[in-house]
Amino acid sequence: MAEQKPDFSTIPSLDRLLQAPAVITLVASHGRSATVAALRAALDTARGALAAGDAIALTEDVFAQTAAARLEREAAPGLRRVFNLTGTVLHTNLGRAPLAEVAITAMAEAARGASNLEYDLETGKRGDRDVHVEELLCELTGAEAATVVNNNAGAVLLLLNALALRKEVPVSRGELVEIGGAFRIPDIMARAGAKLVEVGTTNRTHAKDFVEAIGDRTALVMKVHTSNYLVQGFTADVAEDELAAIAHARDIPFAVDLGAGALVDLERWGLPHEPTARETLGAGADIITFSGDKLLGGPQSGLIVGRADLIAKLKKNPLKRALRCDKATLAALAATLGLYRDPDRLAERLPTLRLLSRDPAEIRKLAESLTAPVQAAVGDGFTISVNDCAGQIGSGALPVESLDSVALVIRPVGSRGQGARLKRLAASLRALPVPVIGRVHDDALWLDLRCLDDVDGFRSQLEKLQMT
Ligand SMILES: *Cc1c(COP(=O)(O)O)cnc(C)c1O
Q1: pLDDT tens for each residue of 194-211
Q2: CA-proximal residue: ligand 1, atom 6 (nearest)
Q3: Cβ < 6 Å from ligand 1: which residues?
Q4: CATH value of 83-91+355-464 in 3.30.200.210, 1.10.10.60, 3.40.190.290, 3.90.1150.110
Q5: Of 30, 49, 195, 428, which sits most exposed with the smallest number of CB within 10 A?
Q6: What digits encode the pLDDT tens for the residues 272-282?
Q7: Is the dihedral of CA 353, 403, 272, 232 positive or negative?
């Protein structure tokens, strides 16, 4: 066999393939140039196989099928839905807050065509895109004015640039935070053109430290909510109302980066307390910033509320234009904020709150109902158990508080090659049509079911699990 020369004439030509009915169908759905590229790739593979002496089928249908598989792979969107079973509800890498139905509808409606985004329907003149959310934000927080940008990092950047350019901003050393994804207060301060003045020490900062740090060049006193860590032990911190009084006695505004930014008291739903925007303004903050896609449960956005004169300065700053939100975001945000007008039904209608307040007993029932189908899918190389576990809110909200939850725990049988088998199991789950993302912990794969909403979708794809 080895000395026999491969007969390349048996391979159909590109022109002939393009006339095959199966290929004509591909051209109709994927376009001519993508189909030609896929066929060329299939032809190259076939030539390589022939040259290597492999026996391969060379019919037009086989080429059409190979090209079709490639075209489908290429056409599949890279950004896909996944099942977040990590136990972290607001998972930044998995897209943070799931949106409410009304927000999704509003977003699609705004995306579909023209809207009055910046057009005043009463006067027929140019309008301001903030109007679609400003009134609601003021109503829900008690602020005089509000504006919105792309995210909270952008909100802090804009605030500092608009109010403290080339001036000093004292911040406690205990609050010089780094949030995941390279957001660091000292860096943002420098990029905004403001000069950070570090106050106090990492664990203790006192009122007199702030008094000493304030001078002629001070533009703003700032407090940053230490959202993703906790300073414990021998600590001291200046309370918001005290800091506000110190700033106001010197005619300096007091700003707070609230981070997660709750709009309602989460204790009502049995969750730990997180300071609300209204409370923070009530304690004397003149301007505050927070994220739209953390506890608020809306689209990615950075919300800024506070004194009208300060907000007006932000709106006039060119960075506001550079960081503005698009129409779909504003539509989703307005719809999400609208839900807060009826707190009694909020947990039903806002997925973030529904997931955060889900009863562990309900999650346990769900886990028990899935034990058998998951066992059948993973096979007898693994055991399944239902275990209590500690989930997290995520996105830096309440880092030390955990959410009591329940997980399906999938553990390899026997002790040999456990790590490698777990890795393969996790990879197989990620290879499902809707990838399932769990958490490896304690030699097992944990699927925290708090965020599992589409149970039927999860269950029905289990038969496609390919254990290697
Ligand atoms: C999350 C967070 C940010 C960044 O907000 P993004 O919306 O992710 O840009 C800034 N500051 C604090 C305190 C945060 O918790």
Answers
A1: 999 999 887 888 899 999
A2: 152
A3: 151-153, 177, 179, 183, 224-225, 227, 257, 259-260, 291, 302, 395-396
A4: 3.90.1150.110
A5: 49
A6: 888 999 999 99
A7: negative
